[in-house]
Amino acid sequence: MNCILKSxxxxxxxxxxxxKALKVLGKKNIAFIMHNGxxxxxxxxxxxxxxxxxxxxxxxxxxxxxxxxxxxLGPAGKTKxxxxxxxxxxxxxxxxxxxxxxxxTTKEWNNIxxxxxxxxxxxxxxxxxxNKTSYSYAYKKYDQALQEAWNNFKSNPVKKLEKEYEHFxxxxxxxxxxxxxxxxxxxxxxxxxxxLWSSETxxxxxxxxxxxxxxxxxxRIKEIExxxxxEIEKYKFIQFIINKQNEETREFAKKHDIKMIADRQxxxxxxxxxxxxxxxxxxxxxxxxxxxFSKDGQAWGFPVMDPERMYNADGSLDEGGQLLKNLYKKMFxxxxxxxxxDHIVGLIDPWVYKSGKxxxxxxxxGRLYSSPEHPELSKYAIAKLEDLNEEVTAxxxxxxxxxxxxxxxxxxxLIEKIVIAAAKEEGLDKNAIVCEDxxxxxxxxxxxMKEYKLQGMKLTQFVEADxxxxxxxxxxxxxxxxxxxxxxxxxxxxxxxxxNIHSHVGYLHAKNLVDDLxxxxxxxxxxxxxxxxxxxxxxxxxxxxxxxxxxxxxxIFFTDYFNVYDVxxxxxxxxxxxxxxRLPDNxxxxxxxxxxxxxxxxxxxxGHEFADKNKKVIENLESIMSSL
Length: 628
Prior knowledge:
628 residues, alpha/beta, disordered N terminus
């Protein structure tokens, strides 16, 4: 795929031409997907981890401004030293690795971090010359740098920053006090994994079982707060820095007409599990049932919200429901572009299994709200026995065969009372909700999404070519969704194409693409042959399929846009090598997708009448291509 948009030609006229083409194709939003750690660094500022708050992050916002409307980020929570996955981070606390350390060396922050410390981190970054994060290195170095910053802030305070810091602590005490206390206890026990702590009291400080324990635990909390007062304040100060820099980035992005879309993972971190364990269903975990990819299912080990702690008898939110609403309110407030909800099935119709067991039916697993026949889960069931197709096992998506309007409302209560309500209270609506509904959906989830007109996702790389009605195929994608060729869990489309040429499956894909995009072509057989032989052409055509579809919203992962031939995440793997891919610092010199040609072909794919109507747009796109 040839270059179309290098920095020296990405002028306002070019952007307006692209925007016009997107508009005639019915695209309302186009979002760039890149998780925080993957952002490039500005010159001589590679600390080992990317951030949208960095100078490099701001430069990238300027780069995409006028072409993209939003940037889809990954989860923003604090991760563990031994696990770089953003999908196991905290639900409230931000990730210190997203801090722009360079800014702390400036007058605005009273030079609380020395330039010597900063440039020592940059100089010794083991991956400074490759487009990979140095997670373990950065995790350690950032902690040392932020300790220095905290010490200098204490010894030489600035009234303006002090005042802002005090306001931040007061406004966020509902989560900040617990998260910082966990930090202190991790130091106390020499381990940040609370199940290994030696004290049962410390494990259950927010889970008392009697009034006596409540008093005893309160005394212990005060004891820890006094003993580790400085460490607790340091934790809170670091969160203050993250919050302040996030606000500055939002304002910067707003001036460039870019909004951020957040990512709400289905998991809770160890820190959150400890802090809110009284709100989780004891003895149960969230996972996935056995399927084609995993014969034993996926035992994620994530806690499950207790249905009996979600709502009060009058329908108002109980403590668990309020916790989730506070989380979503914070996310919508900080991300005006909206929130992507990972694994929407786990929110509406979760598959749960017993702790220490496999997520299999024969070991007691089932759907939390769809198991009226289950001896332990039946009390939570919304579906009734007569609603089930008993010839279908409990792990299959079509098991619940009938649902009343009231049952659909009951399944959707969390969506309506928590997620949509949180969005509205922050000045947004349900269109600010992006549901990751890839894969098979249970009937209750599909019914809820239809009832509330929620926007799901369509991933064209997932097309099963031998199924004409496949929902990810161009001709079957509807308007109200977010469409993309791949997410952070997929190989880039070029890699996908390389693996599918010269194969029977590749032939089926080629035939479908020709039927959908070249219906009026006279040389269909020739195009099919080219698609089965030419990986470049196949990859480009999959992108044409994306833009030719009826989807009003488009997302493009950074590896697909910049033709980065590498994988960001390989599901099921861990370690520093995973979640480590970054956009190279010299991204302006890379060859991005030929977007002008892709949009031209997408317009032509709609038929000659549509193309004639938009002849001027096509000519303008061709003008861009000929100028390069």
